[in-house]
Specification:
Layout lengths: L1 E4 L5 H13 L8 H6 L4 E6 L2 E12 L2 E9 L8 H16 L3 E6 L2 H6 L3 E2 L25 E6 L1
Parallel strand pairs: 4-5
Antiparallel strand pairs: 1-2, 2-3, 3-4, 5-7, 6-7
Length: about 150
Amino acid sequence: MIYRKATFKDVEAIHKLVNDYADKGLMLPRSRNAIYETLRDVVLAEDQGEVIGAGGLHLIWDELAEIRALAVVPDRTRGGVGGRIVGMLMDEARELGVKTLFTLTYQTGFFASLGFREVPKEELPHKVWKECINCSKFPNCDEIAMVKEL
């Protein structure tokens, strides 16, 4: 198993992985354009040349970043892949000086196991919501906000 930063050749695999979950209502969809624009944010898990997991660290504002678009192929969940990806993203966040990480998720148990805690969405700075205007669920977001202080 290899964990690494994403490259252009990974876009289609990331798109399929994320949108397979989005089709089931388990996460928000991502366009290819959005993946290209945030490719430098993404860490991958690869096994024998196959992308089996992905997640991104998106910088929002002063010392604030989001863990987003975290997905692991269904037959590899509960094997530590997602936790390892988030761990790498947290390490990168620390190196950059991020003090607070947040995520908007439906997978609260997973993130709680990594030290995140639920918070009311209203506690997050307004900068967090700048991309929400383009979401199909806006303004009725049903994702749960979670934060972790680094």
